[in-house]
Amino acid sequence: MLAGILFSLGLISLLVRRNLIFVLMSLEVMLNAAGLAFVVAGSRWHQADGQVVFMFILAMAAAEVAVGLALVLQIYRRFKSLDVDELSEMRG
Amino acid sequence: MELTFYIASAVAILSTLLMLTRMNVVHALLYLIVSLLGVAVVFYLLGAPFVAALEAIVYAGAIMVLFLFVVMMLNLGKHAADTEKQWLTPGIWIGPVLLASVLIIEVVYLSRGNTADSVAGAVGPKQVAIALFGPYLIGVELSSMLLLAGLVGAYHLGYRKAEKPEIQHDAHTHERRADASGDLVLAGTDQSARTP
User: In Å, how far is B157's CA from the nearest CA of chain A?
Assistant: First the structure.
């Protein structure tokens, strides 16, 4: 329940906010909610697997946020803006 | 027991809501830290104290400091001092401090009693470690490779080419050059030291 609420809050924030740093922060919230769901499930069935998976999520979030913030720095240097809509010229 | 869980989850949800309605990044970061701490208290209540400590240290400590560094690096303009003065006005940190003090009271209350040990589904750190370095060993290796790749990638992306240091001229270089009628005048040389 709590994990679902937190995940949906992160999703709403991801969709609503247009600042790249807010996007990354809402990604953090969503990953955290997923980890919370894993830990709750592990606690429910008396298994240690939930906490193990939470640690993997933690490592993944750390790596993701490091690369993401480096990308944010580069984008800010190129475009002088963190607005997602202004970056939409990056088409394939 | 139930009440503490509901209080902690209410704090987490409330601070997340406040986080995504802030306009300022640093205020949002403060609320996000409180939200992560609330989730850490929930972990502690669920009988996972090791994961609670990891959440508080890695998420609320390391990752948020990373965010803060980037925010500060982006804000290195001429308005940095003014905005910093504006951020430090009292009343902004009241909200996070209130929510965090609720969490602190709860943790103190929990550490007085032994409610965390009596949780039905408590999984201790020992079981987690046995599972982590037993069947999940390949996952540990893969996550270490992922962290290394993240480190190298972040370094490569954040790398700025070292610019050539500009030659700093003294303020009066041009006047002295005119005085010396075209002779080379080094910056910082005294007026009297110049040979006529």
Answer: 6
Closest by alpha carbon to A55, among B42, B144, B38?
A: B144
Task: Give the gap in angstroms from C-alpha B168 to the nearest C-alpha of chain A.
Answer: 25
| Residue A55 contacts residue B98 (beta carbons within 8 Å) | no
pLDDT digits (tens, 9 = 90+) for B108-162: 877 777 555 555 557 777 877 888 888 888 888 999 999 999 889 888 887 776 5
Place of tokens 């809501």: B17
Beta carbon pairs, A and B, within 8 Å: 156
Q: What share of chain A is helix, strand, coil (3-state, %, to 5)?
A: 80, 0, 15
Element (H, E) at B18: helix B2-20
Q: Could you report the per-residue pLDDT of A2-29, keeping only the tens digit for each? A: 667 777 777 777 777 777 788 888 888 8
Q: Tell whether pTM > 0.90.
A: no
Q: Alpha-carbon distance A32 to B157, whole Å?
A: 25
Cβ atoms within 10 A of the Cβ of A74, count?
A: 14
**Chain B contact for A38 (CB, 8 A cutoff):** no
